[in-house]
Amino acid sequence: MALGREEHGEGDPLVLLHGVATSRLIWRHVTGPLSASGRRVVTVDVPGFGESDPAGPGFELEDVADALVDALDLPEFDLVGHSLGGAVAVAAAARHPDRVQRLILVSPAGLAPRAQGLAAALGAAAELAVHARRALGHQWVEHASARWAMFGTTVADAGRLDPDDARMLLEASDGAQRIGHGIRQALEADLRDDLAAAPMPVGLIWGCADRVVPFGGLDALRALRPDMAVETLDATGHIPQVEDPAAFVAALERLLAAL
User: Fold this and answer.
1) For 44-77, what is each residue's pLDDT tens digit?
2) What is the mean predicted confidence (pLDDT) over 223-250?
3) Going by DSSP bridges, is the β-strand pair 5-8/39-44 parallel, antiparallel, or unpaired?
4) Please, are residues 245 and 32 in contact by the beta-carbon 8 Å criterion?
5) Which residue of 93, 99, 100, 231 is 20 to 30 Å from 74, comparing CA positions?
6) Threshold 0.90, pTM exceeds
């Protein structure tokens, strides 16, 4: 399977997985600082997004996780999963515990299941919205009100989102072939047992203003995994690696040092 990927630095591998309707582009602000700490930072396009081939006709988490781990061709690695990438990361850790050394989740999906009918409807609606945003958004990104319209549910303060970052988020959705299927899996999946049983150390980063995967779910995850190391980020929403890259890198570095 063709896998879109980039590597930065040398050392122990740290693999970064993005969320739905994005690509490895969303890590562009943090790869340099993370690799400067003596790591081989590997950003990949999740199968079905960016430059990576889909892993089957839909977006089955088990198939995606297996295809990803196989294509990475790394004997051992630390794994960071954001949003839908968090669900993929939990599935990969459950199915390949000999490969994943440490698991860090960022605003993770797949841990608060919704009804199937609702998940399917939301997935279809979100796919239409992403396509419309991508078609029309580039001409409006300089306007704060337009950034609010496009990204108001995603980031804590869309008006303050840098226009270049808004363009990057639009570009990151290019090549996305599994938006609806991915969102449906993110909403339907129940990976709580897999996370509870994961044998490797687990960490969590969550923006306190996250409106996509509500921050209020933190207590349930703490109860599920009492040994989990947690970093919370004030005044950031669903994509802290874009909204406040320095705070995100510092939080991830602290988790990697603690786990």
Assistant:
1) 999 999 999 999 998 999 999 999 999 999 999 9
2) 97
3) antiparallel
4) no
5) 231
6) yes
Provide the token pair at 8: 């930065």
Tens digit of pLDDT for each residue in 115-167?
565 555 665 566 666 666 777 778 888 999 989 989 998 999 998 999 999 99
- Which positions ≥6 away from 219 have C-beta within 8 Å? none
Q: Which residues on adjacent β-strands are paired with residue 42?
A: 7, 15
Residue with tokens 């063709």: 2
* Inter-residue contact 126 to 99 (CB < 8 Å): no
Instruction: Scan for tokens 């970093």, then name that residue.
Output: 231
Structure letter (DSSP) for residue 58: S
Helix (H) or strand (E) holding 205: strand 202-207
Sole residue written with tokens 């993005």:
18
Q: Tokens representing 113? A: 């299941």
Helix (H) or strand (E) holding 214: none
Q: Tell me the pLDDT tens digit for each residue of 36-51.
A: 999 999 999 999 999 9
Structure tokens, 73: 């061709």
